[in-house]
Each structure stands twice: as structure tokens, then as C-alpha cells.
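Quick question, first post here. What does this chain look like in 3D?
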Amino acid sequence: MEKLAHKIQSAEKALVALNEVLDFGSNVVFRDAAIHRFEFTVEAVWKALKLYLQDQEGVMANSPKAVFREALVVGLINEEETKEFLGMIEARNSTDHTYNEVLALTIAKEIPKYYGLMMRLMEVIKKTYFVGVLPSIKD
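> Answer (accepted):
Ran it through. C-alpha cells below.
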């Protein structure tokens, strides 16, 4: 359980870091920083989700796409969100290859949407996970 809390916290820190560079405008350096932060944020979020599914739902999935498909099955995300997450994984995977200016622009434009998507997912995970973990406060 403690490992999952750590993964959730890591994903949240990555999301905060990504949020800091979302408004990159026409600045190429900030745009590239946003793409880089997008890469590690996607990694942190899917790995937190993977561990959540394993610990809380008993679901084993090893690849990012499988993890998001399983999140649909257990009701953490809906079908439209699943499609968006799968597109996000494709975008993230394409950033690993040879640098391409057109691809960088295309992905950068989508980062704010992906950020919102990941934020909503992490809120759902936190809400369902921490309800059973945190002690209740009594007056």
C-alpha cells in the first residue's frame, strides 16, 4: 500500500511540473521542456495506475495501453477517455524517436488536453484509494 501512495505522489509531482510549462506560447525552449515533462508525466501516471489496478483491483497489466484498457474495464475511465489515453500513449511513444519539428508542434498542442485527462484520472484514483487508507477524523 505504501508503494502505491508513493507512486500516486510521484505522478502528482510530475503533473505539477508539467503544469509549470503548459503556457509555452511560441517559445521553442519552453515547448520542448513541456514535451519532455509530458514524457515523464505520462510514465509516472501510467505506472501509478498500473500499481493501483494491481493492488486495488487485482488486475495485472504490463503495458501502458493494457493498463488504460483495464482502467476502462474497472470503471475508472470511460470509453472516450480510454481512446484519448491510448492516443496519448501513441504521442508519448513518438517523442522517443528522431526529433521532428512538425511532430513536436502537433504533440505540444495536445499536451494541455492530456494534462487535464491525467489530472482527472489521478483525482479518481486518489478519491478511491485514499478513502480506504486514511483514518477518519472524529470530533
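The CA atoms of residues 25 and 31 lie 8 Å apart.
Confidence is low (pLDDT under 50) at residues 134-139.
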